[in-house]
Amino acid sequence: xxxxxxxxxxxxxxxxxxxxxxxxxxxxxxxxxxxxxxxxxxxxxxxxxxxxxxxxxxxxxxxxxxxxxxxxxxxxxxxxxxxxxxxxxxxxxxxxxxxxxxxxxxxxxxxxxxxxxxxxxxxxxxxxxxxxxxxxxxxxxxxxxxxxxxxxxxxxxxxxxxxxxxxxx
Length: 169
Fold this sequence. Notes:
The chain is mainly beta and 169 residues long. It has one helix at 117-122, and strands at residues 2-3, 11-14, 19-29, 34-42, 50-53, 57-60, 63-66, 84-87, 92-101, 108-114, 125-129, 133-135, 139-142, 151-153.
């Protein structure tokens, strides 16, 4: 699984070996639940941002190698980052911090929701599955009330019991 922050500031090179720029943002299709491409900020200040779609990506590791770009407009992750996440009763669960997506298919698997600095440290961050949320103009709605499994990201083993491998939450 990849996160958005795994790609931000990654260098982008064309197939001739010329450095084009770095990844500034990620393009998402929330309806289909997938990452469509990346927004590239060029090293040349006079050029505008470029859009790299998935079919134009040849490979990526420490740098991304591409063979073309587009100038279309798409929904970007930065437009939903820090957006409130509410439950169906209108209570704020947290804010969007990151996305989790599959390394080969680029399908979005979940949204990482920050609960606040203290709760992140004590409890961890929530991970909401993409099929349980709806993107709105002002907030993201988590319409599932009951989950059979709750996913969380625990920051440290600081609060674990001695000789225990699990944490009761």
